[in-house]
Each structure stands twice: as structure tokens, then as C-alpha cells.
Specification:
Radius of gyration of chain A: 13 Å
Largest sheet of chain B: 6 strands, mixed
Order of helices and strands of chain B: EEEEEEEEEEEE
Structural class of chain A: mainly beta
Largest sheet of chain A: 7 strands, mixed
Helix content of chain B: under 10%
Shape of chain B: globular
Helix content of chain A: under 10%
Distance between the termini of chain A: 31 Å
Strand content of chain A: over 45%
Oligomer: heterodimer
């Protein structure tokens, strides 16, 4: 058990809909990362938050947004869903120092949220 | 910016045989290096990491990796694989400083054949 909790584990929805994925990081971790894993694109970095502030952005679509709340949990919002958004979405957390760089670089991953868009 | 290349997308190997999974990276700054493993239907977990010091790093489950700065490589090895090692393996780098993200390779699927 990594200590990172993601909900829901599975989600099936229709095109055009909006969903919210939730992540609770390990106790004490200030940094949260979101990744998308699909068969054709592999593991893609979406976005990173550190103590409530956005720190790095990757290949995140404009239809997607995220935030990190004062209690450090994070939510990834996916809207106007398309078939191609079907994927496994991972959240990871790390200790991170005050500059946002992981203390030792190690990320702790949740088990993922599998999104299926029909 | 950093990049990670895992040349082999799939590696089949017989049980009890040795295996090497290759990883090369590119970076203009000093980096930390990692190998993560993803078992079926699970999240990624850390296998081993190189931060500094000895270039030969030992990890869990009998895996080890060697950092080669001149060749910018961080290959993963195991002298004798088991069926339970069947999984996908990801090489990753992150810069020592800054807000930059952790960059992952595309992964190598290790298939251990009985």
C-alpha cells in the first residue's frame, strides 16, 4: 500500500460528459502529480501541484483541469469527454522540498482510476 | 528538458534466465534516476533509484541497475528472473533542482516464459 488513495477505481461514462477524479496523497506529502496512461500514448504527465499551487504542466488538454485543496487532496476534472480520453489516470505524491522538487525524487502512486468513455 | 528512451517495448525471457532492460536518458542538468515496476492492474512502485555515490544500485526483488554517466545509461538487470517478475518496467529521471516534472520512459514489458 503506497498510502495514496484514488477514487473512483472504475468509471464508465458517455461522450460529452464531465467527471471528477479524486486523489488523497500520502500523509505529509505536499506535491501531487497526475498522469494519464493509455495503450497508444503510454504514461503521460499531465500536471503537478505543490501545496495548493500549480508547479508544472505537461500534456494536459484544455478540457482538463485540476486543483489541490488546502487539505492537500487533489481533483482532476475531465470535461466534454471523448472516446480517446479512455485511459487509466494515476495520481502520485511526493515529499518535495520547498521549491517543489521531490526530496529524493521518489513518487508514490495510487492504484489509478480507470475511465471508460462510451 | 529531460528525455528518457527505453528502446525495447517488449522483452520475452525464459524463467531463471538473466535479463537486461535498457534505459538511456538525455538531460542538460544533473538528474536522479529511477526504475519503477507496474504489475498488472496496479499502480507503479519504486524498484530502485540512483541519487549519488556508487554507480551500482540494488533494488527490491533481486534487481540492480548501473549508472553510466558517459553513456547516459541506467540499465536494469536481474541474474535470474521468476514468473512473478512479469510486469512493465519504467525508467524515469528528475532534475536535482527546480519545479520540473518527473519524466518517464515509454516502458518495457517483461514477459517471463515458464
Amino acid at each position: 500500500d503506497s498510502g495514496v488513495t484514488q477514487t473512483p477505481k472504475h468509471l464508465i461514462t458517455a461522450t460529452g460528459q464531465r467527471v471528477t477524479l479524486r486523489c488523497s496523497p500520502r500523509s505529509g506529502d505536499l506535491s501531487v502529480y497526475w498522469y494519464q496512461q493509455s495503450l497508444d500514448q503510454g504514461l503521460q504527465f499531465l500536471i503537478q501541484y505543490y501545496n495548493g499551487e500549480e508547479r508544472a504542466k505537461g500534456n494536459i488538454l484544455e478540457r482538463f483541469s485540476a486543483q489541490q485543496f488546502p487539505d492537500l487532496h487533489s481533483e482532476l476534472n475531465l470535461s466534454s469527454l471523448e472516446l480517446g480520453d479512455s485511459a487509466l489516470y494515476f495520481c502520485a505524491s511526493s515529499v518535495a522540498d520547498y521549491r517543489g522538487t521531490p526530496n529524493t525524487g521518489e513518487l508514490f502512486f495510487g492504484e489509478g482510476s480507470r475511465l471508460t468513455v462510451l | 528538458a529531460q528525455s528518457v528512451t527505453q528502446l525495447d517495448s517488449q522483452v520475452p525471457v525464459f524463467e531463471e534466465a538473466p535479463v537486461e532492460l535498457r534505459c538511456n536518458y538525455s538531460s542538460s542538468v544533473s538528474v536522479y534516476l529511477f526504475w519503477y515496476v507496474q504489475y498488472p492492474n496496479q499502480g507503479l512502485q519504486l524498484l530502485l533509484k540512483y541519487l549519488s555515490g556508487s554507480t551500482l544500485v540494488k533494488g527490491i526483488n533481486g534487481f540492480e541497475a548501473e549508472f553510466n554517466k558517459s553513456q547516459t545509461s541506467f540499465h536494469l538487470r536481474k541474474p535470474s528472473v521468476h514468473i512473478s517478475d512479469t510486469a512493465e518496467y519504467f525508467c524515469a529521471v528528475t532534475p536535482l533542482r527546480g519545479y520540473q516534472k518527473v519524466t518517464f520512459g515509454t516502458g518495457t514489458k517483461l514477459q517471463v516464459i515458464p
